[in-house]
Automatic annotation (TrEMBL):
Name of the protein: Transcriptional regulator
A Pfam family: DUF5753
Organism for this UniProt entry: Actinoallomurus iriomotensis
InterPro entries on file: Cro/C1-type_HTH, DUF5753, Lambda_DNA-bd_dom_sf
PROSITE patterns, A to Z: HTH_CROC1
Ranges for domain HTH cro/C1-type: 16-70
Molecular function terms, GO-annotated: DNA binding
Amino acid sequence: MNKPISPSLRTLGAAIRRHREAAGMTQDYLAGLVNYSNGWLANVETGQLCPQKQAVIELEKVLGLPEKVLLDIFDLIRYEEPHPVISFERYADAESRAGVIRQYHALVLPGLLQTPDYARILIAAGRPSARPETVEGLLAARLERQEILARDDPPTLWLVIDETALLRPVGGPEVHRAQLDALVEAAQRPGITVQVIPLATGAHAGLTSAFTILSFTDEPDVAYTEDHQRGHFQERPDLVHGWFAVYQALHLVTETAAASLELIQRTRERL
């Protein structure tokens, strides 16, 4: 189902297209200036995709626009449909600026590597009362976050995944196979490391919570967890250190990156 496009989102896309054309820029050229793909900008201009705030700021700069010409429209979109997880937009902004992203997932595969079909099913299952347009909006936001991996300077991504997440048949066999294929491809990219904790490990330090640790060039590290309604940031050095200790403990029970890739491939072949 196609998500209905909000009037403000359509207005923002039209404004970006109008200013781009007035500046004599192609979509490909403007997208390159803000470090996104041509497909991303095409979807933004047609209102199919809501950009992050920092992307709107960058568009204003490279288009030579006065401050808040585009941001004023963007603020209307955010008012219309806030993210259901409080503080998540803060996390998405931090994630987009991080140089190193360390994540651990036990139940499902990480959002940065999810296929659209896999992500849509998870979002809908997690919010059974959500309207279809809300699900599609959350899906668009998740797919936009993945654009950081296509940048010229992508972050280093270190993932620890419990084998349980590989085995869960989200969406049925076809979606499951496509998702594992995408994971195999991602695990072989430079800058992305995927390590799996075998199911036979039994109890380990990660069974209480999924989490993310973000590291920056000129900012202190932060750790992040979330529940159904709220994102939780840990910024005190002692608390962040505690999450690093958990992450290191998990590495004691993971397979190597090479062995993990083989495990993912074997799981895929059995489907």
